[in-house]
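Entry 14. Two folds queued back to back today. First construct below, sequence then structure tokens.
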Amino acid sequence: MSTTPLTRTATLADLDVVAALFDAYRQFYEQAPDLATARHFIRDRFEHEESVILLALDDAGQAIGFCQLYPVFCSIEARRTYLLSDLFVTPAARRSGAGRALLLAAERHTLENGRAKMELTTARTNQAAQAAYASLGWQRDEVYLAYSKRVQA
């Protein structure tokens, strides 16, 4: 790739492209391939306007990565924020600047939409991602611990 990847907001017309990237993202996190589930999940996000999906494009206009922002609230700041939940670049496009371009596009979108901030989590072992976030001014939380609990019927 010769230039910095372009980014744009995905629309429902991009469903098949985004679903394929989302399925690959889920496989990266050790989920079984399941394009139908990925497509259904992404279609629901588009149809219910529950997230913003940004695409990174190569020189030929092909999608090589995406990030997904979920609107949430920060009670402490009493403001709207975004959770940057998903960030994925295809293996062939890694180190092309696509991840950085997506993070910067997410930052612009956050600013343009009056959100206070973005938050994300990453694996403790994902040193490359941590370095990328730090290089773009993201601050690692040293105060709060994250917890989760799976709730089953």
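Second construct, same run, same settings:
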Amino acid sequence: MVITIGTWIWGLLLLVGFGLSIWIVIPAPIFALLPLSVGAPEISPGLIIFNSIVLILGGIRWRFNTSQSPRLLILALGISGLAVVVSASPLIQFPAARQQAQSAIEASLGRGYLGDLAPEITAKMRSQPLIITDIWGKIPIPQVRIDRQIPFNNRDGVPLYLNIYRPLQVGKYPAIVSIYGGAWQRGSPDSDDTFNRYIAAQGYTVWAISYRHAPAYQFPAQIEDVKLALTFMQNHAKENETDLDRVALIGRSAGAQLAMLAAYQYAPFPVRALVNYYGPVNLTAGYDDVPNPDPIESRVTLRAFLGGTPTEFPDRYYQASPINTIKPNLPASLLIYGGKDHIIQAKYGKYLDRSLRSHGNRTVFIEIPWADHAFDAVFSGVSNQLALYYTERFLAWELLKQ
């Protein structure tokens, strides 16, 4: 009886480890399973340890439990070994991904691109693209000043708010405008709070803004609200310790689409840099060529945002597609996409990178092969540590260099 109970417990642990690990390589078929597909790669070092322990326990059972079916045990041990290999795949791929990212940023910014940064600035940055202990211990977030729920406008009875994050020391700082994602349908200025606090502590005033949501409000309502937020920022820069000559925009997913449109076309003042985390680039192509699987039902999402299909509203799809705003002399752009993303596929980021380069713009494209959409929701995860390492360096190169 003891052996039977032990076998069941080991089998349960095996299924849990394998069941979680398999989401490292399998994209979510439906939205409800997206957290598994996003989260599994980010906690993969923990899954390596868990699966290795299960494999060792299985080996012990093989050695001492002669009453068990040898074939069944061999099969179970094979599944356990496969779980170890799968859970190790992000770390196996990490050196090549880091090298690609390093080569991309050096090719665009120069090999000595950090040379003009003051030591006190580089001292605040991540020392390595991956620190395994931070996955469990969490990335340290210094204290900053935060003013929340500042009203900047009211459109159609919808109050619009923003948050402002600043370093503890009073001063005048470069600005980062942070625009949340959420399929243009959900989110708030609090959505990326951890990143906003982290990056503000490095010497920036961060403006996290809001916009009206689809389907109640369709494009161009969202970009109009972004423009209003930027105008409010322009008018209230001095009292909020903001240097308008050094401004970058960062957006995630739908927020990246709005950030690109604003930085490349609509901002009321010059923007120095753009950071695009897995943003949609060509909405017409996104409608015509949906990914498989398609966990957010891309066509439904785009119709909610734009009011219909590309056939019905070709001009609206064109105007909402950042790829159609590309021209010379745009802000330097950092583009980060996940290779496993089946919401906004990495091929669109590559296409944008090529288009920007063909017009003589400075751009850095980084693909994280194992990462899914919204990988940075796990702030201390494997993918976000890599993205954060290069994001903070890119922003410092453009906004903090002497």
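Quick look at the second one. The chain has two domains: 2-93, 101-399. Residues 70-109 form the longest helix (40 residues).
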